[in-house]
């Protein structure tokens, strides 16, 4: 803490001590001040490209045939038929991207890229 700072006693009984005379770097710069023009907006500091990643995902998903179909076909109940979903996937232009997404994100339910969860699990084992 800055040598010039004073510590005030716990006057209100909340258990907190208050430093007086210290702001940010001790030079009068408060890094927490709203609208501080010397620092970039938080969004720039923590930008990890998530918008780009989501944009890529949304691009192929918007072109997927399943986006124009009843989603229940792709998430059949246990023991239900996957035939209709796989038929739709077989003619889909983004089948490869869909399957890659499911494998990369460990999707555990539904038909992705023309494969059931069991088929994707087998493919993962073969790849290892």
TrEMBL record:
Coiled-coil regions listed: none
Entry GO CC: cytoplasm
Compartment(s) of residence: Cytoplasm
InterPro entries: 4FE4S_WBL, Whib
Region spans: Disordered: 1-38
Keywords: 4Fe-4S, Cytoplasm, Disulfide bond, DNA-binding, Iron, Iron-sulfur, Metal-binding, Transcription, Transcription regulation
Cofactors required: [4Fe-4S] cluster
Cofactor comment text: Binds 1 [4Fe-4S] cluster per subunit. Following nitrosylation of the [4Fe-4S] cluster binds 1 [4Fe-8(NO)] cluster per subunit.
Compositionally biased spans, kind Acidic residues: 1-15
Record-listed [4Fe-4S] cluster binding positions: 66, 89, 92, 98
Membrane-crossing residue ranges in chain numbering: none
Record note on modification: The Fe-S cluster can be nitrosylated by nitric oxide (NO). Upon Fe-S cluster removal intramolecular disulfide bonds are formed.
PROSITE patterns: 4FE4S_WBL
Domain 4Fe-4S Wbl-type residues, every copy: 65-122
GO MF entries: 4 iron, 4 sulfur cluster binding; dinitrosyl-iron complex binding; DNA binding; metal ion binding; protein-disulfide reductase [NAD(P)H] activity
UniProt GO BP: cell redox homeostasis; negative regulation of DNA-templated transcription
Stated family: Belongs to the WhiB family.
Known role: Acts as a transcriptional regulator. Probably redox-responsive. The apo- but not holo-form probably binds DNA.
Protein name as it appears in the record: Transcriptional regulator WhiB
